[in-house]
Structure formats: C-alpha cells, structure tokens
Amino acid sequence: MGSSSSPLGLPLNEIILEFLLHHLRFIPVCFILLPLSFIYDLVTRARNYVVHSVNSAPRAHDRKVAKIQAEVREWAAGDRKKKMCNARSGWNTMSFRYPLYKNTSTLISTNTLIDILEVDEEARTIRVEPMVSMGEITNYLLPRGFSLPIVPELDDLTVGGMINGCGVESSGRKYGLFQHICVSYEIVTADGSLVVAKKGTEDAESQGLFYGIPWSHGTLGFLVAATIRIIPCKPFVKLTYMPVGGFKDMTAKLQSESTVAENEFVEGIQFSQEMGVVMKGRFSDGPPKNREINEIGKWHKPWFYTHVEGIGNKNEEVTEYIPLREYYHRHSKSIFWELEEIIPFGNNVLFRWFYGWLCPPKISFLKYTTFGAVRRIYERRHVLQDMLIPLTDLEKGLQVFHEKTNIYPVWLCPFNLPTCPGFVKQKTGRNVLYVDVGVYGVCKKDDYDPRKTTRELEEFVRSVEGVQMLYADTYMTREEFYQMFDSSLYEWLRVKLNAKDAFPDVYDKVKKEARF
Ligand SMILES: Cc1cc2nc3c(=O)[nH]c(=O)nc-3n(C[C@H](O)[C@H](O)[C@H](O)COP(=O)(O)OP(=O)(O)OC[C@H]3O[C@@H](n4cnc5c(N)ncnc54)[C@H](O)[C@@H]3O)c2cc1C
Ligand SMILES: NC(=O)C1=CN([C@@H]2O[C@H](COP(=O)(O)OP(=O)(O)OC[C@H]3O[C@@H](n4cnc5c(N)ncnc54)[C@H](OP(=O)(O)O)[C@@H]3O)[C@@H](O)[C@H]2O)C=CC1
Ligand SMILES: CC(C)=CCC[C@@H](C)[C@H]1CC[C@@]2(C)C3=C(CC[C@]12C)[C@@]1(C)CC[C@H](O)C(C)(C)[C@@H]1CC3
Q1: Which of its termini does the chain have fewer beta carbons within 10 Å around, N or C?
Q2: Average model confidence (pLDDT) for the chain?
Q3: Ligand in closest contact with the CA of 433
Q4: 3-class SS letters over 157-208
Q5: CA-nearest residue, atom 19 of ligand 2
Q6: Other C-beta atoms lying within 10 Å of the C-beta of residue 281
C-alpha cells in the first residue's frame, strides 16, 4: 500500500509520514520535553548548590579518578580487543552525532566527573571536572565577579567537549579558541597513569600533551580535570549593533572591529546577501541613569537573532546594555535559529509570555527523541556546519556558502589563531584572525546533496587553510582529513603514550561512517 514513488525517490507514504511527524513535533516537545527540561535543570541546580555548599567535590574527585584509573588498568590487563571511549551516551552530547563506536567500545566512566573543584582568585584560575557545563560555570563564577575569558554560548556545552573538541565564542578575537585559555590538563593515559599536561613546563612530554589534547576527541587519554584562566568581569555588556551591507561590507567591518583593543566581544550575523549586523561589546558597570537595560534572556523577550535582524532592517546603529550572563547565553533560548524548525510559533508573543519560561528544551532530550523519520529529514535537508577560515577569505567564503546552501542567517565569529603546535596548525609564525562561519538550517537549493555539497564546502575550506569543526558531519577521506589537520604532534603522542591500540584515531571517530 502507498508504495508509489515521489520525485525524491521515496515511497509516498514515507514522505507523508515524515511530513506529519516533522510538523507535529512541537506537540511532544511542548507538553513533555519542555516541562521535563525545566524540572531537570531545577534538580541539577539544587544538587550543585548543595555540593558547593558542603565542598564535597574535591574529595569525591580523587575517588572518581581512582575508579577511572582502575577501569583503564582492567582494560590494559585484558585482551585489548575493544578500544576505549567515554561512557557519556551519544544522545547526551551537543552535536548531531550518534556515534556507533559507543556500542562496540569499552566505556570508561568519565561521565561521573561533573563538579567544579576550586577557584583560585589570586592565580586567576578555576579547576573543573570535564563534564561541567558552560551554564554551571557562569552560574558559579559571575556572582563572584569573575568569568571565563571564553564562554561558548549554549548552556549545556561541557568543558571536556570544548577541550577535546573545540570551543569558539565572540571574545575569541582577544583570547583565541577555548583551548587557548587553558593552563593545564589532568589526563589518565592508556596504561592507567595520571599525568599533568601543562603549558610552559620544561618537560617536553607534558608540553607536547598540552598542545596535543585539543581536537584529539579523547584519543590520547581521558581528561579528568582542567585548570582554566578566569578574568574579572562586570555585570553588564554594552553592546553596539552596527548594520552592514553585503559580504564585502561584513568582512571589512569584522576586520576593523576585531583589531580594536577595547572590544571584548565581536560577532556578526549575515541575514541575507544584502544585509548583516556586526556587534561589538565591552564590559560595563551598567547604563547611565536615563538608559534602559535590555534583559534579552527574560522568558518573554524575543529571540535574540530576531531582535538583531529588526535592528538590521531599520539600518540604524543601536547601543544597549545587557546583563552579562544573558549576553553569554544569548543564543541558548532559540538554539541559534534551530528552535523555529521545531516550534514554529516559539517566538510568538503569546507563546513567549505563557510558555517561554520553560524554554529552551534540553538539546540532549531533543536528540534522544529524534529518530526514524525526523532523523531522515534532518539528514536529507539540514546543514549543520561550522567552518573556521582566515578572516581575509570571508567574502569569498560567504559567496561559496551562498551558492552551495543559500541558508541564512549565517553566524560569524572572529577569533585569533596563534602559531603553536597541535592538530590545528597555523603556520605563519604570527597571530592570524580567523572567523567561524556557522551555517545551521534547511538548505533551499534543489540540487542539495549532503555528501556532494559538504565535500565541496570542505574542499573550499582546505583551499584557504581553514578547518571544519568536528562535531558536524565530515565527508572527507582520510587523506583529505590529514591535509586539513596536522597529525605530526598527534602521531608522536599516540606512539609515545601507547594510545594506538587503546583508542581509535580521530578520523575513525568523526568520519560519517562512524555515526549513524
Ligand atoms: C596557544 C598558545 C600557546 C602558547 N605557548 C607558550 C609557551 O609554551 N611558552 C611561552 O613562553 N609562551 C607561550 N605562549 C605565549 C604566552 O601565552 C604569552 O606570551 C602570554 O600569555 C601573553 O599573552 P597575550 O595574551 O598578551 O598575547 P598573545 O597574543 O596570546 O600572544 C603573545 C605572542 O606569543 C606568541 N605565541 C603564540 N603561541 C606561542 C607559543 N607556542 N610559543 C611562544 N609564543 C607563542 C603569539 O604569536 C604572540 O606573538 C602561548 C600562547 C598561546 C596562545
Ligand atoms: N560555541 C561552540 O564552540 C560550540 C561547539 N560545539 C561543538 O560541540 C562539541 C561539544 O559538545 P559536548 O557535548 O560538550 O562534548 P562531546 O561529549 O560531544 O565531546 C566531544 C569529543 O570530546 C571527547 N571528550 C569529551 N570529554 C572527554 C574527556 N573527559 N576525556 C576525553 N575525551 C573527552 C568525546 O569523546 P567520546 O567520543 O569518547 O565521548 C568527543 O569525541 C564540541 O566538539 C564542539 O566543537 C557545539 C556547539 C557550540
Ligand atoms: C560553533 C557553534 C556556535 C556551533 C553551534 C552549533 C549548534 C547550532 C548545533 C550543535 C548541536 C546541534 C547540531 C543540534 C541541533 C541543532 C544545531 C546544533 C544545536 C538539533 C537540536 C537540531 C534538531 C535535531 O532533531 C537534534 C535534536 C538531533 C539536533 C541536536 C544537535
């Protein structure tokens, strides 16, 4: 029944089912996932409050690490037929990945490492376990007058993911990537020993590991704690929105604002071929008397990017004062521009006033319930990619993305990439401004083919010495992958740390075939 074929080559009944499931997805999301997410967050906050009050995390940390070491040693003493990976389930992670290797590997319980360990205000550092999220860090640090120099914006992103993967944010023009604000990593290696990889030590192996860990995706060892720089901050951000025209204008404005030393934050959003907005931000104690604060994080406020678009359409420069935490998590409430696809009326004023306080749904809960037809729709039409390219190539890059995907808005986040050893190697010997080009949405091109189009984008990125963020689907071959990424330090560390039979290679973890 109903097996007549459609222009997409799929049976008609499947197309209809997909259409219905996709368009009615808001029902379970609004009535089940939103309340569950809200309760989950309340319980987590209460739990963290108790743990911080009784300061039990440091003692528990040693116990948890000893257990992880014992698990690794047990693996090392066994037949070593399976490789190891983190026990955190695939659906729990902030990517479109559903990793296959989780089903066939020995799972090591790093997912118990969920606490902030200590803050040293004098040394200006914080020591945390890897499963601590960005939301927890801002909740903990901001009331104390400190912040991480880089706070990737989605609340549920974890320190472990930001270090073993990659983390980008609008303060990147000053501080680089998340890895560049880290001071040391505590790693359990393949033989179960605990080593400290530290920036600036005499010990070459420790230095090497420090530069090798970022982007290694848990294939050199298990991160059990990280010490990260903190900076003093102020309660508000003075944010200036500057509308710009097309791609050339956007590139020039991002370039000029990124070199202004006083700008703490620089971000761009391109809304069409003709219009974009560049935002520059500085820490502030608050607005002068006659100026209002825009609490963009409040439940009834419009989604941030729609607010920015409104300013762009009026083509007027606007300055606002925004509470710092609300600025950091400005794209959380609308999951960038992804929530509209799931709850199409989510930005409607009535929905916001009556239901907005429950938003956003937890990405992990959404992911857990994305299966079957809905997954296929995302696979077929959705582009989720972040490409990091030199800022000087942005105009060309925007043109390529326009031709291949025609998706707007496009997120643009400049950051400084220094010359240093590691998987991502920029070889000029100086600091170079890069930009993260983030494309998330439904592709409007009729000839869109996920493999073909992504491969074309990847080819462009390689041609300008850029890199692809590896939470996204990569369709490169192994050779192409290692043209994009530098494996020299990585390979040396893999041999030195006996990691080759303990962990898969990065490529084998991130390639499309390793995900389902
Ligand atoms: C990822 C990274 C790794 C670094 N590693 C070391 C290190 O091992 N030993 C050390 O003494 N300093 C190192 N530095 C430089 C050190 O951080 C700075 O000297 C100091 O922190 C001042 O930082 P800044 O923010 O004022 O300047 P930044 O703009 O962060 O950097 C200052 C200068 O240091 C250069 N630099 C970048 N990477 C390295 C590197 N691996 N080694 C030396 N210089 C570098 C930059 O190109 C720039 O010219 C490193 C910097 C970064 C970003
Ligand atoms: N603003 C930004 O920068 C944003 C970044 N992202 C991307 O999302 C990802 C982060 O998602 P998140 O859910 O936090 O992280 P994930 O759990 O997805 O972890 C990312 C990778 O790091 C490895 N890893 C995580 N923790 C450890 C650890 N303790 N020891 C060793 N390896 C570890 C994982 O290994 P394993 O596979 O074994 O679990 C995995 O390969 C990042 O890769 C990032 O690039 C997404 C949105 C925004
Ligand atoms: C560098 C930066 C800023 C990256 C931002 C990337 C986000 C926009 C990505 C990361 C995870 C991500 C791919 C995700 C999704 C949207 C885009 C996200 C949030 C969603 C929620 C789309 C809906 C899907 O059904 C599903 C729930 C599986 C995914 C989960 C991951």
Answers
A1: N
A2: 94
A3: 1
A4: CEHHHHHHCCCCCCCHHHHCCHHHHEEEEEEECCCCCEEEEECCCCCHHHHH
A5: 161
A6: 22
